[in-house]
């Protein structure tokens, strides 16, 4: 009974909005609602209460005091979720060691990052702000809700979202540590060794603590505890299934290797990122319940990623792999709906399947699909109102809503949306440059000076 | 028989040495003051904010304030300082400073082989360091701060994320130990990252901080158990880094965090929330939104005296050439809006009911008085500003029984000025630090200021890594003010100076030069003596170069 009460309390606390978190009430009227899970519903209203979807149906009435948004002729879809981003955080790569599981980008949330507003303008409401891929085992990532306008870093954190961590295979870790500092890993074999060694140590660490905790209860026990390690403690949490791995990967062989490592250590929660050769190991991924987060049609920016296809997302989907399309980039992030639409040309996915790639599927990969990713009663009111269908080239996001609060409105889009201005700094010019690399090695410019003598 | 002759010569030399030695030493010896008793008479005494005695007397004896008030008898042995038309305040307290603290010598260190596992000191982790080992009373910064009324400072060692323990010091004294009022007053920390070794990011610093703290808690626990009964237990290991945390864990010493930006404050509060240590934040510059959060965390606060610089309009080299007048106006408006927030930070804390002192870690000492006037203009009352310089920091640092007000029994730390301190024309005449009188050489300063005639052409030479360079500095009257241009080896086209100021005999000017398509801001600060000046140029790249000027004779 006591336990029951405890769990009830826990659930209550977990579902309570974070202290002071802004939520809104609203009625969106007469839209074409793209629910993802329950089909497309024409001439339908969505009622939002306290930041949650309260009702989806026809001819709903708004209680007094509710904002009413007429969306006649418009489309409403769930807020877009980007499963791979590096925005909204001040630090990306603790590149100094091959294993840095203890660091967490959640410690460096920057609510003033204007790119979050630009993402809202592209219909994005949730991002997975990730550690970089310099290390075989990088740092912990952070799921953020784009409540742009809040001044508190904590207010961007999606409370209750599961912990996630960045892993990386292939050229990045071998280049930085093997090539740069002449330490393991220098090869793909080395990367596997680093993973296995780390997990073995973590297993021994957790066992040593269990033994100590048990021994401590014995009368007259006077032993020393195992030396505290933040790193091993974090790795042990992965083994316990409390942290989802998001693994930067390209080649089929390394993806398959990582699947074996997971199997050997009993790890069930893994999402492969980039995974450009995922189509070659799609059945193997599906069999192990591993998921995949890919680019729509982008590759050949370095040697290990010369072989890929725009059919990757469709092939993975058809093989039963939960697949998402991500941006890894502040610019691409603003039109993920176009990226999703590409799978209709390359793979003929249905509207729901294509839209799931940027909504429900990334939500599953982040472990937040009970709360976001589709338009269902009880879910968070994270919605985008589109003019024209989001999978059409004419689709343009008009209003983006997070927890029932309008965070972007195209009609009221101000010229200067900066939340903080440093009077000593000039205005940053916005550059939308052609990308020639993935953003995963960001923050390493300094390192490359020393490591490679490059500028 | 030459030996005796040589011997005689030698002994003669020895005699010379013996005579000359004491003579030289005597010349350098500082004389003790004639008396340790002083009386400042007929002076307006601001005992503490709002507590004023008109035409009163302050008697100082043996380093302490003996008596304060009206009709106080002047002791016969006292040296009398006539205070007619002067004002006396309690000496000011700087909440965070490196004044009088030497930098450790970190040159010629080997490259760390494994950047993921560096020795703690290389990663900036040296909490066992005591700032007392680096004190240097001859540091110019001590004298400069004292000259504008600061008598006490909370000083901390230079370093990375955990530089060491701070101490409360007098801004005066002959030896390092003379300077110390209270050692081991704080466990100083910053969010500074290490240079190309772990932790190289702020997330690494945060993780390392937590790990060290938890390891220290664990080590301390075991050491306590072990000390209670050693037989049958593995000896507790000693670790200087972890042991430095023990007084913090016992809440006997606060962690003093340098937290300038709003996000720094949030991050520091996050660490504090998780670990529960007593917290002081200092050198806060962007705290207007976080005041309530600091209050809730029961943190003590020192606000930075550094404010955003006001720059003259740059006529050329607009960063965005395509910008319309309207856009420019909108941007300027936002800049003004935020400049006001920085200047009004103290008012925000006052309104939020969070007590605060000031810290002068990064502000140029020459800017402090001007910035205080700006802060007052932004809405802080003079009494509130005085409290933030005296009574409040004394309380925050736990020394209000000794410092912070002009009351009998407190240490004789006093500032004596002509005109009230916050008046633009106010001049500091005397400063007492721990009972020692420092007279400001006003006549000399005035004389030198009068001598300086800037108008004309100056040849400026500088030593750069690429060799010697020469430039021409032309200073002209522009209306009521001075303005100028600079041209030379690096500047084929003359560039207009962004700022030009003369304070006493200190010349300050700045300009922006374009090199390889990059704008480099240069700030020069130099002491003028007649037709020459000598000083230093600071580039916004962080480089510092020595500069010298020579005025050209009029054609």
UniProtKB/TrEMBL annotation, chain A:
UniProt GO MF annotations: hydrolase activity, acting on carbon-nitrogen (but not peptide) bonds
InterPro entries per the UniProt record, alphabetical: Amidohydro-rel (IPR006680), Metal-dep_hydrolase_composite (IPR011059), Metal_Hydrolase (IPR032466), Metallo-dep_Hydrolase (IPR051781)
Coiled coil, from the record: none
Protein origin, superkingdom: Bacteria
Span of the signal peptide: 1-20
Cross-referenced SUPFAM superfamilies: Composite domain of metallo-dependent hydrolases, Metallo-dependent hydrolases
Domain Amidohydrolase-related, residue spans: 75-405
Record keywords, A-Z: Signal
Protein name as catalogued: Amidohydrolase
Organism annotation: Dawidia soli
Automatic annotation (TrEMBL), chain B:
Domain named Amidohydrolase-related: residues: 376-435
Coiled coil regions in record: none
Domain of life: Bacteria
InterPro entries: Amidohydro-rel (IPR006680), Metal-dep_hydrolase_composite (IPR011059), Metal_Hydrolase (IPR032466), Metallo-dep_Hydrolase (IPR051781)
GO molecular function: hydrolase activity, acting on carbon-nitrogen (but not peptide) bonds
Region (Disordered): 100-129, 535-555
Name by which UniProt lists this protein: Amidohydrolase family protein
Organism: Dawidia soli
